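To whoever is covering the structure queue this week,

Two jobs came back overnight. Logging them here so there's a record in the thread.

Job A:
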Amino acid sequence: MSSNQTEFVFGHTVEGLLLALKGRLEAPLKAKLKAAGLDVDKKLEPAYPNAIWQRALQVGAEELFPGVPMSEAQWMLGERFVSGYFETNMGRALHGMLKLLGPARALERTSRNLASGSNFLHVEVERVSDTDYRIKVNEGGTYPEFIGAICHFGTMATGVKGLTTVVESRNGRAATYRVRW
């Protein structure tokens, strides 16, 4: 998948990924990330090209979940990413807000929350019913399960019970998710 050269993922988002990889960032993984374009021994840049982000996600999923099918590994990486992101300054503020909002209002703010991580992600949130939402993103990534997991575990932070999130469809780089509880 090629991505536009003007698409960037912001440094605080990359910080969330590094926190998800905490405890695994020894020489072999550092070398793989550096080969992907992410030198973790340097201070984080304000932003990274989306192509580097996509490669870093793949390297991270392979490292943390060897032998697991990539789509499943990306979901599991997304869960760890949310936990890691909630340890960043921006993530701590978001986590506190999500607890107050509840699942419906949190999902309705998904476009703003996901858009804060990059300069290219556009999200449409459609309310199907009180407990059923469809989330459309213009860029689902190489594996849309990663963003699906972000939607799922971000919404779980509200305290909602019985949440299910699935990748409903994929159209080129775009993806649609269904979130219900």
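Job B:
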Amino acid sequence: MGSQLKKRIMVSYEAEYCVSHEPNFQEEEIWILFHGYGQLAEFFIRRFLPFDEKYRLFIAPEATNYSYLKDYSGRVGANWMTSHERELAIENNHRYLDQLVDGILSQFENAPKVHVFGFSQGVATATRWASRWKGNVNKFVLWAGGFAHDLQLNVSKEKFVDTEFISVLGDQDEFVNSENLQKQEKMVRLLEKKMKRINFSGGHIIDSEVLKGFFGKK
């Protein structure tokens, strides 16, 4: 009597990402933007286009898991992972993001500063990836989300030693409660990081006025 076997195969696939302008590879800073659950990169990056500059490039990777947002037709959104084959999705994300970011950075003669902006589900994905990426992040914005709960703390503590962290939360965010706030406070203590905190009046959104504060004129 045979038994069912589940196997894996490594394949090449195409993934999409958006940039705020055609890179000239003279930019002094790049921002890697991680969208939230059910969003698409082309719409997510639009919030940042008013802050695009010759010296500043925004790069928005798009997650590779897609689904209809309601029923079986209509609008489609992307997500970084679900509970199904979660570990496999994480490893695929790492390979994809490494190849994307390293490929862009390799074309710079003078390395730019690298900043990361994560929103909602994108925050956990961003922190998890950045903690393992070979490069260093200068500034890290955690908006409406927190550190991945499965970070390797010893590795992450060393990796983020020179990284500036900023947490942004709306006071009416329906996805934030006291329990997950306490868990995040514990992660901050374990990572031995100082966290700048910004709160605004609103829900699970990116507030335009608060966003302006990150991109002052040079």
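Note for Job B: The radius of gyration is 18 Å.

Please reply-all if you pick these up so we don't duplicate work.
Q.
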